[in-house]
Amino acid sequence: MSVLSDAPKPETVSTGAFGAAGLFLASMLAGSALGLYAPEAAERASGFTDTTLLILISLIFFELRLSNVARAFGNFKFLTLAWIANFLIVPAIGFAIASLLFSGQPLLFAGIMIYFLAPCTDWFLGFTRMAHGNTELGAALIPINMVSQLLLFPLWLWFFTPATGLVDFGAMPVLLVQWFLLPMALAQGLRFALNWALPEATFEALMDQASRFTTLALALLIALLFASHVKAILGNAGVFALVALAVMLFFALTFLVGRAIASSAQLPYPNQALLAMTMAARNAPLMLALTAVAIPDQPLVLAVIVFGMLVEIPHLTLLRQLLLRQSRPSHKVEV
Prior knowledge:
This protein has helices at residues 10-37, 39-45, 49-63, 76-102, 106-117, 124-130, 135-160, 172-197, 200-234, 240-264, 269-280, 284-294, 299-326. It is mainly alpha-helical.
C-alpha cells in the first residue's frame, strides 16, 4: 500500500492491490488460527501490537509527499469540490447507511462509520490511472486528504460516538501528539534528509521498499489483532453479511452522487474518474491504526474496518470498468 506521487503501471497496481488483499486475508486467517489453537503464543505475540502499530504509522507518514500540493494550485476549483465531497458529502452518505443498518449497535456503527469517513491516500491513484483519470491532480489530493482526516478524526469520534463511552476524549490530545503528530514530524524530517542526501534513483528505490514494508506491517498488525481478539470477533461473525451490505450500498451511492457532482460541475472525464475514485476508496490502513489507539480493546470495531478493506479492492476494479465505459471513445479500455 503505497502513498504515490506518480501512478504506477496499471498491471502493477492491479496485481499489487489484489496481492495485498490476499495477504491481509491470509493474515486474518493466520492470526485467528493462532488465537484459537495457541492462545498462550497469541498472548505473547500481542505484546508486539503497539510496536507494530507505531512502525506502521511511521511508514505511512514516511511515504507522504507533501510537495505534491504545489502541483494543484492551478485547479483550486477541483480540490475544493473534492474536499467537500470527501469530508462533507461522503460522511453524510455513510451516516445515513450506518443509521439505517446499525441503529442500536454502537460497536458496529462506530466501525462502519470510521471506515466510511476517510478517503484513500494510496492505491486509489493507481486505479485512477487505470481508468484514464487525472493522476497528477490526484497526487495533490493525497497530502490534503491525509492531513484533513487526521485533524478531523477527533471531531468525527465526538460527533458519531458521543454516547457509546468508547472514547476517552480527555486523553485524545496526548494520543494524537504521541502516536501521530510526533511520528509524522520525525518521518517527514527523515524523508527530507534522505531526499537531500541520496541520489534520486537511490531515494526512489528506498521509497519502493518502504511501500512494501508498509504492506507487511499492516498485515502483521491485522494478524496480531485477530490473534488477540478472534473469539470476540467470531462471536459476532453473523453481522458481517450486514457489514458487506452496508459497504456495497456505500459504493453504489458514492458512485451515483459522484456522477451527479461531476455532471453539474461539468468536469472533464479525467477529473470525473479521479473524483469517483477518491470518493469510493477508503483509507482503511490509517483508520485501523487511529482506531487501535483511540478505541483499544474493541475488536469488533477493528474487524469491521478490515472487512471493509477486503471488499474494497473488487469494487475499485468494477468501478474502473464502469468509468471506462462512460469515457470518451478515445479512451481505450484496458483488459
